[in-house]
Automatic annotation (TrEMBL):
<keyword id="KW-0472">Membrane</keyword>
<comment type="pathway">
    <text>Porphyrin-containing compound metabolism.</text>
</comment>
<dbReference type="GO" id="GO:0016491">
    <property type="term" value="F:oxidoreductase activity"/>
</dbReference>
<feature type="transmembrane region" description="Helical">
    <location>
        <begin position="200"/>
        <end position="219"/>
    </location>
</feature>
<keyword id="KW-0812">Transmembrane</keyword>
<dbReference type="GO" id="GO:0006784">
    <property type="term" value="P:heme A biosynthetic process"/>
</dbReference>
<keyword id="KW-1003">Cell membrane</keyword>
<dbReference type="InterPro" id="IPR003780">
    <property type="entry name" value="COX15/CtaA_fam"/>
</dbReference>
<keyword id="KW-0350">Heme biosynthesis</keyword>
<protein>
    <submittedName>
        <fullName>Cytochrome C oxidase subunit I</fullName>
    </submittedName>
</protein>
<feature type="transmembrane region" description="Helical">
    <location>
        <begin position="303"/>
        <end position="325"/>
    </location>
</feature>
<keyword id="KW-0560">Oxidoreductase</keyword>
<feature type="transmembrane region" description="Helical">
    <location>
        <begin position="105"/>
        <end position="123"/>
    </location>
</feature>
<feature type="transmembrane region" description="Helical">
    <location>
        <begin position="273"/>
        <end position="291"/>
    </location>
</feature>
<keyword id="KW-1015">Disulfide bond</keyword>
<keyword id="KW-0479">Metal-binding</keyword>
<dbReference type="InterPro" id="IPR050450">
    <property type="entry name" value="COX15/CtaA_HemeA_synthase"/>
</dbReference>
Length: 381
């Protein structure tokens, strides 16, 4: 299995670049810098994963972790050429193979960075003054994510596997953001007891967004984006004929019902309609939440970003329908959802941290012995 070692070395070589950049930066807290760099690259990886799916490159190399038992499409040239000759517009072409393998290379690099975060968390646990178990959990999470990446290929893009792969990627991103937020300097979060009243509302917003992303992933993995090509109606009706039973049957092959038949259009309409309808609820709720949270100084910036991003996300989602699913808009829509998740995790962390600081900050009490009595003379006669 020499090619597996070669793949590991490729991932390590890519990871060396951000690791070197962190080392040469004049930053007192290099662990914090590494955490945020890993967040940034994980976000990029999620967007590139969306690009891989949207270009139908998920089976560009139909085995895992390499490409036809090799470490690159260069070495797999004869096999890819044979597959492309047989089916020129099929799942295996040179372009799709390279897209798929670049995605895997960068996934390995992110894995290396997460291993570095875990090792440093244990080595510097006294200096960091925080438990290393979150970073350790990230290591196990990225291993689970890798397993679902393998199953995505070996189970031929089964929708529930691909959607779970997406949700695990976003869980990884959110956990990395939480880890990075824990490294913020003390001045970034202030004791604000009033902010804690929004704790459950912010958590509910995060839950609604995650559910909406799951619905969006289900739309994408079932290729149901164009099941409704008009707006605000769907197929000319507010409530078109829909087949929820087949549409939301989780364990089935791509494009098939659980019984093996071709999935009916009404099932795809149901998938699309539910995602579109629930999006309205999410936009209204998160818009309301952002307007409330911006009143707190330490929450203002991420809340304003969230509010602005809601409009961008709505516009990219609408353009997917109006302009027949253009690739750039679809990738931007996927990336926008990931950034919204990032912002909501940041808001939740700051609200919880503000409450913790408020509980730890002693409330000053007036010194009654030193205070003059009301009405008593303060000067000598």
């Amino acid at each position: 299995m020499l090619y597996v070692l070669e793949l590991g070395l490729i991932g390590l070589a890519i990871a060396v670049l951000p690791l070197t950049w962190v080392l040469i930066r004049r930053d007192a807290n290099k662990y914090r810098k590494l955490a945020w760099v890993t967040v940034f690259l994980t976000l990029d990886l999620i967007m590139f994963g969306g690009f891989t799916r949207l270009t139908d490159s998920g089976l560009g190399c139909p085995d895992w972790p390499g490409c036809y038992g090799t470490s690159s499409p260069f070495a797999a040239h004869p096999e890819i050429h044979a597959a492309q000759t047989l089916l020129p517009s099929g799942p295996v072409t040179f372009m799709k193979a390279w897209i798929e393998m670049v995605h895997r290379y960068f996934a390995m690099a992110v894995g290396v960075l997460i291993i570095a975060l875990m090792v440093l968390a244990w080595v510097k646990r006294k200096e960091l003054k925080q438990s290393p178990w979150l970073a350790t959990g990230l290591f196990f999470l990225v291993c689970l994510q890798g397993a679902f990446g393998a199953w995505t290929v070996t189970m031929k893009l089964q929708p529930v596997i691909v959607t779970t792969h997406l949700l695990l990627a976003l869980t990884l991103l959110g956990s990395l953001v939480w880890l990075a937020c824990r490294q913020m300097p003390p001045g970034m979060v202030a004791a604000d007891p009033a902010a804690t009243r929004w704790r459950w509302a912010a958590l509910a917003g995060l839950g609604l967004l995650v559910f909406q992303i799951a619905l969006g992933g289900w739309v994408s993995t079932n290729y149901a984006v164009l099941a409704c090509t008009d707006f605000p109606t769907c197929q000319g009706q507010w409530i078109p004929p829909m087949d929820f039973g087949h549409g939301f049957k989780l364990w089935r092959e791509l494009g098939r019902t659980a019984g093996g038949e071709i999935i009916p259009m009404d099932a795809l309409v149901a998938i699309h309609w539910v995602h579109r309808t629930f999006a309205v609820m999410v936009v209204l709720y998160l818009g309301w939440l952002a307007t409330r949270l911006r009143r707190h100084a330490m929450l203002r910036r991420p809340a304003l970003f969230l509010f602005a991003l809601l409009f961008v996300q709505f516009a990219t989602g609408l353009s997917n329908i109006v302009f027949q699913w253009p690739l750039l808009n679809a990738v931007a829509h996927n990336g926008g959802a990931a950034v919204m998740l990032l912002l909501l995790v940041m808001l939740n962390y700051r609200i919880i941290a503000a409450g913790r600081l408020a509980r730890q900050t002693p409330v000053p009490t007036p010194d009654r012995a030193a205070a003059p009595l009301a009405g008593a003379p303060t000067g000598s006669a």
